[in-house]
Amino acid sequence: MSSAHGQGPKAPHAFFQHHYNTVEQQAGAAKLGMWVFLATEILMFSGLFLAYFIIRILYPEMVLGSHELLSKTMGGVNTVVLLFSSFTMAMAVRSAQVGDTPGIIRNLIMTIGCACIFMVVKYFEYTGKFAHGIFPGKYFDYGRAAAYAAEHGHELVGMPHIFFGIYFTMTGLHGVHVAVGIGVLVWIMLRAKKGHFGPQYYSPVENVGLYWHIVDLVWIFLFPLLYLVK
Amino acid sequence: MLSMFLAPETKEAAKAAVGNVAAAAPPAPPAPKLPPLETLHSWAMPTQASTFAESTDNLYLFIVFLDAFFFVLILAAMGYFMWKYKRRSPDQKTSSITHNGKIEFLWSAIPAVLLVVIFAWAEIDFIKQTTPPADAIDIRVTGRQWFWQVDYPDYPGVSLTSSTEEPLITMIVPKGRPVRLIMTSEDVLHSFYVPAFRVKKDVVPGRYTTLWFEATRVGEFNIFCTEYCGDRHSSMAGVIKVLEPASFEAALREAAKLEQKPTESVADFGGRIYTRRGCNACHTLNGDPATGPTWKGLYGKSETLADGTTLTVDDNYIKESILQPQAKIVAGFTGANMPSYQGQLDDKQITAIIDFIKQQK
Amino acid sequence: MATADTSSAHGGDHAREVSFYAAKTGLKSWLVTLDHKRLGMMYLVGTMVFFLVGGIAALTLRTELLTPEQDLVSATTYNKLFTIHGAVMVFLVIIPSVPGALGNFLLPLMLGAKDVAFPRLNLLSFWIYSLGAVFFLITLVNGSLDTGWTFYTPYSTSSGTAVVTATFGAFILGFSSILTGLNFIVTVHKMRAPGLTWNRLPLFVWAIYSTAVIQILATPVLAITLMLLMIERTLNIGIFDPAMGGDPVLYQHFFWFYSHPAVYIMILPGFGIISELIAVHSRKHIFGYKAIALSSIAIAIISFLVWGHHMFVSGQSELAGVVFSFLTFAVAVPTAIKVFSWVATLYKGSIEFNTPMLYALAFLFTFTIGGLTGIFLGALSVDVHLHDTYFVVAHFHYVMMGGTIIAFIGGIHHWWGKMTGRMFNEAHGRWGCLLVFIGFNMTFFNQFIVGQQGMPRRYATYVPQFQQQHVLSTIGSYILGLGLLWTAFYLLRSLKTGAQASDNPYAGASLEWQTQSPPIEHNFHGQPRVDTDPYNFPQIDRSGGMDHH
Ligand code: HEA
Ligand code: HEA
Ligand code: CUA
Ligand SMILES: [Cu+2]
């Protein structure tokens, strides 16, 4: 079997960590670790989804009435943007696998761009809500929100502060994930610039890609549940 | 960001929105003097005083014996092996057994079967405990920090309250008749527990929970609050009195009566109402605001209302505050609700309260 | 037997390399270390310090309970005491203890690896743990906490104490636990030495592995629960708080969905220790290896389906109660399998009554009582009477203190020589074990009785007829405290005066015994190889024709 003190069978790679025996072992560990991590992320969000469903079952009319105040256009734009970014992310991984460093960088920049667009749209969505007294929980200004709803031909029922409480919590946590995503995307882009990745070593790109797909996936669930309730 | 965690947290925010907030801790009262639980033996279960008790205890005993059997079996085997196979020489040989399918199957299957028996038994009893008979007497129980209020819809105007300072009869029920409690809480979780009846159920704000029992024994039994509810959780006790059906109604009316004693001054009578009717749950006498404004220095002071107007506290205003609390809301207490005592306190009692408030300078 | 490379023969004549302690020195070599062994030692120190903190709170509250009235502390202080005691013991002691300390130290050694899969992540977990601990300390000086360790709403959304600080601390600790679990899962999958198949893993590794599975599946839900609680408290969004339209029972479902599996996060590593201790000190092949390993996995799975047994009287639906009760009994069976297998391992063994083994036997006694009393609580109608009484308090101390902590202390003794290079004094150890055993049972056995008579938990004052049992219990807790202090004392003293530990003082057969005591920085000289299972002791008599090994 393999040798002692971490001489991998192939040429020891620059990023080889010496507590592993082989480069394959290292890559396998990184991948498995990422999948386990993603499982914990999904479980974390599923807690919130559960809370959402319970509220929806408890107060169906309230949820129906309140969701009308969300902008389907902005939500829709963001969905498209994120879907596209998932595609560019996949392209970046592909470029890394074939050793196309400019390709990695190009695709990562597009991904980061999409992520930024997403955040900007979210910013306008949030401030738009705040402007009409739509805050989470006790800061919710029923009077102003109801007037705003009436303007648009909708009616608020029951306790809309709960819906917006959960809306801000879910999209907020998702937003935090996008922000973290931007951070790690920039980090691997800088590493790509230094030429770190190639066919032998691309697990960081791959793992960040997996993370980014999960962030998208969560949004794919958030969008219909929050914006398109029927 | 960090300051959010470092700043001493005040209750103001929660108070504004939520209303019924844990009152600032007044000096805690001494342990309630309750009748001792009647126990047959100091190691035994409490007295069996309801129709559930016997069956629950039988299952309890069954599990005790079953557990004892397994425990003794395990300890006996362990003790025997410890003695028999103690290491006597450093190179003592040991057996090469690694497993034995048959015995492993047995020691999984036998406990599994026994556990199903326990499950079924407990379940049948539990279903009984959760389905009250149709002819039960209804009693409404309201949990508050930190007392129980008990109303008898079948006997209009009859209402009893426990008090942390002076534990007294909280509930009177007839022997041999099913009783159903419909319970809710005005603030946080509580739990209504009568050990002698083997019944317990959480009392949850915002919803109604029910519990039923049929008492089988005349006597007085402890009520405990078993869901942690704050400072005086352990003093939120009461007494349930079981009477023969014949004397039940008269005793109930007598206990619900709150009249001035011949030896008592009007203000002292007011003080008794203050504790008996639970005003003390929200109003302090020491100047600290709690759920409601303090009564210290209340009489004659100029009070600012939520709508910005001011008025001087006098007899009429106090009376109005008691009968229609929502008519004039004191500034700073908009979220909290004081229940109306219309139909529950008569003029004499209200006068006594006013006298008592006058005393609080 | 497992063997290391030819160069590291057992005799120890091999030129000894410096231990991992001596390999690097200075404060920095500890604070930013990537070495799993150093991190293990730091967890050991951390959890023990908080064990002391939690223990002091416990002894103070026990002292208050000597009399029915309030005399030593006010009810308010009492409530803070049991909350801090419970929260510290759960979040800072018992959950990180065995995985953090022994798991970190031993897992790579037992696997024949140089380190865990992600050493940096491991360091990060430790610092997250420390950060969480800091938040708990801030809580202590900043109004403390009086909600009970369960943080039930709506009390926790209205209490005047530092609820957000404390929940944030627990939230952070959750991430430490998740990352440790993740690291261990990957380590077990990817870092095993050649020949170390799943069937040859020491049972301690199996236990840590199953624990890690629960950690990563359950803890994220705790994180989200605590996050929602913090949001509820600061913004009142109306999920858990009935005054804002929320549902307090929903909070309980969320909380127990984590906290029931968490009780197995606490006990499974203890089970792992006991399997090692009993096999090594009776020099017998563990009985029913597969059943023990697989029952851990069974527990890990079923444990997700029983949370509602904490809520039989909460106002959840009756049907839910029935289902949860049934599944609760189902989870007892795999535990029964383990208990019987441990006893069977003793059969025809060569049992040495040294301190670690005495702790293992004490565990069998106390844990079995704790587990068996869980049966009362799982039985619906009986739990209606016993819920939230001292019977429950006694049950969970029998399983947590009498189970996990006793196992942990036994494990510390068993691997003390390996971890520190010194042996403790055997006679001192046996006395300590005796004191702990007597003190423990005296403290908590009475609580079954007083609970069964109706004494509710979380009571600062109580009706006088319970006093006798409370006095006994308090005296017991002093004896227990004395025993633990004594244990801490002789263990610490052995660091200075103890005899040099040999590499394999108890003749164990798993890989951690095949290296120096204390191990060298990279654990082994060369790459260890494994060709048999870890319970194949040389004393086993194979003349009887046993051939499946
Ligand atoms: C290490 C932690 C740990 C462990 C391992 C367990 C193990 C078990 N627990 Fe416990 N439990 C807690 C920690 C733990 N518990 C805590 C902390 C609480 C309270 C939390 C709070 O409210 O603050 C609690 C509360 C608790 C309750 C809620 C009580 C209430 O609040 O009303 C219940 C109810 O079902 C329960 C049941 C069980 C059962 C059935 C087991 C089983 O897994 C036990 C299985 C073991 C055995 C059964 C013994 C060995 C088997 C045999 C010898 C075979 C023969 C047996 C028979 C045929 C019976 N536990
Ligand atoms: C791991 C979990 C754990 C442990 C070990 C303990 C240990 C102890 N606990 Fe408990 N306890 C809980 C978890 C635990 N507890 C929980 C979760 C609750 C519920 C809280 C709630 O209701 O919210 C509770 C509640 C609780 C109550 C009920 C309070 C009430 O409901 O009013 C009581 C009362 O007797 C009690 C007592 C004790 C005692 C005397 C010990 C003793 O065993 C303590 C002994 C320890 C020491 C005295 C410290 C000595 C240590 C050292 C000297 C360092 C040692 C170093 C080395 C060995 C190297 N605990
Ligand atoms: Cu009310 Cu505890
Ligand atoms: Cu549980």
Write a short abstract of this structure:
The complex is a heterotrimer of chains A (230), B (361) and C (549). Chain A has 230 residues and is mainly α.
List keywords for this structure.
heterotrimer, A: 230 residues, mainly alpha, Four Helix Bundle (Hemerythrin (Met), subunit A), 74% helix, elongated, disordered N terminus, B: 361 residues, alpha+beta, Immunoglobulin-like, Cytochrome Bc1 Complex, Chain D, domain 2, five-stranded mixed sheet, 18% strand, binds heme-A, binds dinuclear copper ion, binds copper (II) ion
Describe the structure.
The complex is a heterotrimer of chains A (230), B (361) and C (549). Chain A has seven helices and no strands. Chain A has helices at residues 23-58, 60-67, 72-98, 101-131, 142-151, 160-193, 203-227. Chain A is mainly alpha-helical and 230 residues long. In chain B, the strands form three sheets. In chain B, strands 3-2-1-5-8 form a five-stranded mixed sheet, with no helix packed on it. Chain B has a five-stranded mixed sheet with strand order 4-10-9-6-7. In chain B, strands 11-12 form a two-stranded antiparallel ribbon. In chain B, strand 1 (137-144) and strand 2 (147-151) form a beta hairpin. Among the domains of chain B are: 137-256, Immunoglobulin-like (Sandwich), CATH 2.60.40; 266-358, Cytochrome c-like domain (Cytochrome Bc1 Complex, Chain D, domain 2, Orthogonal Bundle). By secondary structure, chain C is an all-alpha fold. Chain C has one domain: Cytochrome c oxidase-like, subunit I domain (Cytochrome C Oxidase, Chain A, Up-down Bundle), CATH 1.20.210.10. Chain C contains 16 helices and two strands. In chain C, helix 4 runs parallel beside helix 14 (390-420), helix 8 (203-235) runs antiparallel to helix 9 (248-282) and helix 11 (318-346) packs antiparallel against helix 12. The longest helix of chain C is centred in the N-terminal third of the chain and has 37 residues, at 75-111. At the B-C interface, helix 1, helix 2, helix 3, helix 4 and strand 7 of B face helix 4, helix 6, helix 7, helix 9 and helix 10 of C. The site of dinuclear copper ion (CUA) has 9 residues of chain B, from loops.
